[in-house]
Write a structure and sequence with these properties.
With about 325 residues, the chain is of the alpha/beta class. Helix content is about 65%, strand content about 10%. The protein has helices spanning about 15-30, 45-55, 70-80, 80-90, 105-110, 135-165, 170-180, 185-195, 200-220, 220-235, 240-255, 260-270, 275-290, 295-305, 310-334, and strands spanning about 1-5, 5-10, 40, 60-65, 90-100, 115-120, 125-130.
Length: about 325
């Protein structure tokens, strides 16, 4: 018999101890080493909804197409990314479909035709979030998490609307929930309904007008944005002044008056605290400064964005803008 610090082992047991030690080490190593989670994959849309209902999950639906050159890149770089796969495995059923073969479903999800787009739906088929085009892995993860975190809020707001379908305040809450979840298109429809139902309710009407003005400005519809903003000022923008200044800045960009845009955005940044609004204002300010010919100020503004830890989508846009500015500066040098 041999003794190792009080443990007595018979010679015939050496091999057994070695095997057990190797097994213990392997167990410890596997426990400490994260394994890649495998997403739940569906075969078709009906299968995805059924699986989501049965397992309390959401559906992450990606449309790709041979007509969209970025589809292969999206599939290889984004959907195969470990962080994306782990996020999909945590609360989603994943489904990839051909946009041309499933044209009617694409239209139902996005309200138009297209080739490359992603959306998140609940088990009832309600579109919670949508995004057109390619996105990097970090951005895709953020959109998935945003939809997953906001799904309960949308569900509660939908329930409230079903109980009080003629209540403008309920529709306002639904619009805010949909916007927070990542579907501005359906959010805009809810805000329009809220304004229609409660035109004399200052809180509902002002909030709806502010959001409608922003949506219009962001898609380049200056006429509609200016009308909604004018109505907001008529009602009174109590508590919405800073956000209204951001929308004014975006409108001035559309109207090609960058100095006025920069002034409105700088005024907004004096009191804005919400990170998402600050990031929107800073990106717009950088564009206005560039359009004014002040590239040094634009670079400094974009640096503020990159230094303050905003989300990956904002940081990606800031980096793209910096690259464009540097490329332009390099071209001017030559």
């Amino acid at each position: 018999m041999r003794s190792f610090k009080g443990l007595r082992v018979a010679p015939s047991s050496y091999s057994t101890v070695a095997i057990l030690a190797v097994f213990a080490l392997a167990t410890w190593w596997s426990a400490g080493t994260p394994r890649e989670s495998a997403p739940v994959e569906a075969h078709d849309f009906a299968d995805a909804l059924e699986c989501a209902r049965a397992n309390g999950r959401l559906v992450a639906l990606d449309f790709t197409s041979e007509e969209a050159p970025c589809s292969a890149r999206f599939r290889e770089d984004t959907l195969c990314d470990p962080a994306v796969r782990a996020t999909l495995a945590d609360g989603f059923v994943h489904l990839e479909l051909d946009a041309l073969r499933e044209r009617e479903l694409f239209r139902a999800c996005f309200g138009r035709d297209g080739f490359l787009a992603s959306c998140v739906l609940d088990a009832d088929g309600d579109v919670l979030a949508e995004h057109a085009g390619w996105s990097a892995a970090a951005e895709h993860v953020e959109r998935l998490e945003r939809a997953r975190d906001g799904a309960c809020r949308v569900d509660a707001a939908r329930e409230l609307v079903s109980l009080a379908n003629d209540d403008g305040a309920a529709w306002l809450l639904l619009g805010e929930a949909r916007e927070a979840c990542g579907n501005p298109r359906l959010a805009e429809q809810a805000f329009l309904r809220a304004l229609e139902l409660a035109p004399k309710d200052a809180t509902v009407a002002a909030s709806s007008c502010e959001r409608l003005a922003r949506f219009a400005a962001e898609r380049g519809d200056g006429v509609t944005a200016r009308e909604s903003l004018a109505r907001l000022h008529e009602i009174g923008a109590t508590g919405l002044e800073a956000r209204a200044h951001v929308t004014e800045g975006l409108l001035r960009e559309i109207e090609r008056t960058p100095r006025l845009a920069a002034g409105a955005l700088e005024l907004a940044l004096e009191s804005l605290a919400e990170p998402a609004e600050r990031s929107t204002a800073l990106l717009a300010l950088a564009r206005a400064q560039r359009d004014c010919g002040d590239e040094r100020a634009a670079v400094a503004t974009l640096a503020r964005l990159l230094d303050h830890g905003f989300d990956s989508i904002t940081r990606s846009r800031a980096r793209d803008s910096l690259v464009a500015l540097q490329r332009d500066a390099h071209g001017h040098d030559h």
